[in-house]
Amino acid sequence: MVKSTHKSDDHWLVRPQTIRLLWYAGIAILALTVLCDLVIEHHPHFGIDGTFGFAAWYGFVSCVVLVAFAKGLGAFLKRPDTYYEAGE
């Protein structure tokens, strides 16, 4: 099958302008979600969970920690590409 290089044949999700629009829309939604924190009354159980944007920055930091842990675990558990071929 011959792949067409014509621009109009590209799927709408792979077009650069669509990707840019999705990035802008995602950032706007995230910013509005954090700004909603200004009008919500908080009932913090600890001192830090009453700070502005706590859920946003706590979720981001948690995600970074999980990705770093997964990278480290992957490096520790990694096997060579020829792992299954070595016994033959």
Short characterization:
The chain has 88 residues and is mainly alpha-helical. The chain has helices spanning 16-35, 54-77.
What does this structure look like?
With 88 residues, the protein is mainly α. Helices cover 50% and strands 0% of the residues. The protein contains 2 helices and no strands. It has helices at 16-35, 54-77. The longest helix has 24 residues, at 54-77. It is flat. The two termini are 37 Å apart. The model has no long low-confidence stretch (mean pLDDT 88).
Instruction: Measure the end-to-end span.
Output: 37 Å
Overall spatial form: flat
Main β sheet profile? none
Q: DSSP helix count?
A: 2
> What sequence of helices (H) and strands (E) makes up the elements?
HH
In helices, the fraction of residues equals: 40-55%
The average pLDDT score comes to: 88
How many separate domains make up the residues?
Answer: 1
Pick out its properties.
mainly alpha; flat
Task: Note the topology.
Elements: H1 16-35, H2 54-77
